[in-house]
Amino acid sequence: MPATSELTYSPFSKAIFDDPYPVYRRLRTEAPVYRDPGERWWVLSRFADVASALRDWETYSSKLGPAPENPDDDGRKYSVISMDPPRHDRIRGVLKGFFTPRAVTAMEGALQRVVDHHLDRLTPGTTVDAMEAFAFSVPTDVIGDLLGVPHADREQLRVWWEAFLTRHEGEVTMPPSAIEANRRISSYIGDLIEARRTEPGDDLISIVLQATFHDPEIGDDRALTPHEVLMFCNLLSAAGSETTQKLISNGLVAMHDHPDQWQRIVHDHSLIPAAVNEALRYDTPSHWVARTLTRRVELHGVTMEAGDWVLLLLGSANRDERRYDDPDRFILDRPRGTDVYFGWGIHICLGQWLARREAQMVFEAVAKKFPNYAIGAHERVLTATVRGYTSVEMMLR
Asked: N or C: which end of the chain has fewer CB within 10 A?
């Protein structure tokens, strides 16, 4: 037998990014607590360990942010995803009720109009880039409508977010293009916020501006500070589009690669919610998230020290054979329990129900209009934390 190659994992390797699952399997088996060769972070890859860490915010803190290449300081860069309770709970609570299943159901008509606008323009017998045709634009328009972003500016904002997330092979630091994109995003969102201060509407930016919450540190109710408003709205503009774009594209490719499951969906649309859940598990859009330890932790015979960074591999946890039978197959009938594709615990994705519903509507439209679609060439660009496609050739039939 040939000797097993040395086990090496880096979230900034394009080869691993393109197909991480073989490395993930080895991590789970050979090194469930893996030490980065540069000693910059630890990596947890098994479902039980990742799920436990996500729940234990007192040990696995979010205050330094979700990504070690761009550390935060208690929410100054990334808003609530870089906060621990009680501050996290107070600020997240400003919009908590806006994204409940009931609230998303109330948006049903508006969501359907966005999906129909983009999918009804497509013609059977043609070939399109699914990303340009609808996978980019549906989530971008949904969050654009919610935030009140003018139609003419939405594509530019999406391009800036993609540039902000793009990373270079083997480089941990953010490239200058990402830093510049971040500056442009903050400037643009800041201008929108100032416009809403003088002319508020019924959009999310206006709601955030007008919201108050009780702050025990001052013993009274207060509004969000200007910086808190900016970071919260920045987060909404990104999270509302980026991960949903990846979910739609990853799901279309996965279902094409499992035609038996896709044909079941075509003949029974009631399976579509299960298909979205399985797409989230099978090829998770948010592939990893980072935390920092507040105390020493011993796990699988390894000691991690207080202050250490720990990467939690959501994409690996969702393929863990200890949690899922035949995890490398797309199977609609999986029993559902705790799943970590949207994170878990206090930081579970605020917009998860909205993302699910958007993807369900897109998959249903494809099943009705293009039940025998085929996928051609599809490409990814190396990005931080999220994983999906930038182009997907799709034959409509």
From this structure: N
4 within domain boundaries: no
DSSP run (H or E) holding 395:
strand 391-395
Looking at the chain, the whole-number percentage of residues with pLDDT higher than 70 is 99
Q: 16-54: b or e for each residue (b if 16 or more CB lie within 10 Å)?
A: bbeebeebbbbbbeeebbbebeeeebbbbbbbebbbbbb
Residue 26 falls within a domain, yes or no?
A: yes
Please report, for residues 113, 196, 207, 237, the alpha-carbon distance to residue 149 in angstroms, rounded to integers and kept in the order given.
17, 11, 14, 9
Give residue 4's pLDDT band: very low, low, confident or very high (50, 70, 90): low
Cα–Cα distance between 323 and 341 in angstroms, integer? 13
Residue 3 forms part of a structural domain? no
Domain residue limits at 106: 14-395
CATH of the domain at 117: 1.10.630.10
- Which whole-number Å values give the CA distances from 277 to 233, 342, 357, in the listed order? 27, 10, 11
Token duo for residue 129: 């880039």
Count structural domains, the chain.
1
Mean pLDDT for all residues in the chain: 94
Instruction: Return all residues near 72 (Cβ < 8 A) that are at least 6 apart.
Output: 63, 64, 65, 66, 78, 82
Residue 6 belongs to some domain of the structure: no
Reported as a single tens digit per residue, the pLDDT across 299-355 is 999 999 999 999 999 999 999 999 999 999 999 999 888 899 999 999 999 999 999
What are the residues whose beta carbons fall under 8 Å from the beta carbon of 397, sequence distance 6 or more? 124, 125, 370, 372, 373, 374
Tokens of 68: 């070690």
pLDDT at residue number 70? 85
